[in-house]
What does this fold into?
Amino acid sequence: MLENFFDVKEENPFADCDCLPLYTVLDFPDELNPRWCDVRDLSEKEFDVYAEKLRVYFLNAYDKDKFPVGAGSVSLDEIINRLKKFHTLRMNSSDIYFEEDGKKILKGYNSWATVVDHWFPEMMDVPITRGIAQETPSIIGFFRDKKMYHHKMKRMLWKDKLNGWRDDPYKPVWPTLKQSIRMGSGTQPVTNIRCPIAKWIYSTTLLKAAETNDELIVYDPSMGWAGRLVAFLSASSHPNLRDKRCVYIGTDPNSAIYERYGMIEKFWKKFIDPTCKAEVYPICLGSEDFDKTDLFKEYKGRGVLAYTSPPYFNRERYSTDTAQSYKKFSSYESWKGGFLKKTVENVHDFLGLRGVFMWNIANIKLSKGKHLPLETDSVQLAKDAGLIEKDMIHMLMRFTIGRDNNIQEIAKNVSMNVIKCEGKLNKYEPVFVFEKGA
It folds into this structure.
């Protein structure tokens, strides 16, 4: 009896928690994970049977268990650990922002906060449009296309054309296969925004605004995969902002992921920073309709910052919701007038005097020498709405194997934005900075 009385049970902090990430670690079955050398020695018919078992397993992992092949495999404890590290990440580091030859440059490649992707398995199911209308399948789409899958798996896995197992043919198929699929399937997974950059933008802008404002209201026109949301939650906990009312309002029409924003806010305040007092108000609609909402009417003219990276027309088809801008406006001209122009006008009206608008956008290449001018159109529309262009920051982009092998040729042909810094050529996307005047 006394033994039972003093037997203290350890509570599970995750029990009955409704805000956990949708996937963590993939428990890959041993029977599907032989040594590569054993796969190499299969007959073509035997390999086809094995490859089909893999395909069925990966599709079931996604459709039933919400685990997307090609995504990270990270434990729940490690997700918490990485988000805590991101929360304490210093913003005054040249690894995030620096200036060179009069140019302002953002880097911020730290990946701790990328674990927020674990709330969005759909990221691996987003097709990419190349050129004017050529659609590249998502990684999940690659598995759904049985014919294409088997053709490319023979090259990637059976024949190891990408040399994934060349140095050690005795190692198992998984997890090397994950990288081979990402490189050789002909797909291009979408990525989240770089959270250190977003945190730097929120931190520097809000700290300056806090000098003259007791409430700091920000607007994110395209919430996307919640990278900016996580950055805002972290930035709002700066000691100099603790006594300020920090409010994040965001719009996004993707109904499939809408509830995740509340889950992430709850997870952050429970496991990352229980002292966080920031208010978060997501709205499930497109930014072009923000002015029709009660929150817009309540905060109109009171915003200190609007910051986002919008959809690049039809480049990434985030969902099949009819409210997606590429669905509502099928041509670029109609999209520019119906989505881009209206979004920028709503931002202008939301901002208060000297409110800041930071807009990360880049042109879309259609073919050699041809592109959609999202950059110049955005700047002109912002000016037309009454915003004042103040600056442009160069946000460096990672080198893409295969696509960007000859960056000197890219710079020569001006097929994408290139800047020389830190002794080498780098791709970049502009972050335009505007201010609302009197």
